[in-house]
Amino acid sequence: MPDESIKGPASYFPSIEKKYGRPIGDWQQIVRSKLPAKHMELVAMLKAEHGLGHGHANAIVAHVLAEQKG
């Protein structure tokens, strides 16, 4: 059962790791390596180059961009 204390984009991380077989840190580093870029450009890159679904790509990008702001 998923950890219900995790909210927001990070709540997708366990299913992303399970589905795509890579640690979430790898995906975050891929996004960071493309900065600066717009949110939807990063989502499109993850989808086109790595085969992620829209929701999973969006969650990773949103989390990385929130870290960059904070």
Automatic annotation (TrEMBL):
Family matches, as InterPro entries: DUF4287
Q: Name one Pfam family in it.
A: DUF4287
**Superkingdom per UniProt:** Bacteria
Protein name per Swiss-Prot or TrEMBL: DUF4287 domain-containing protein
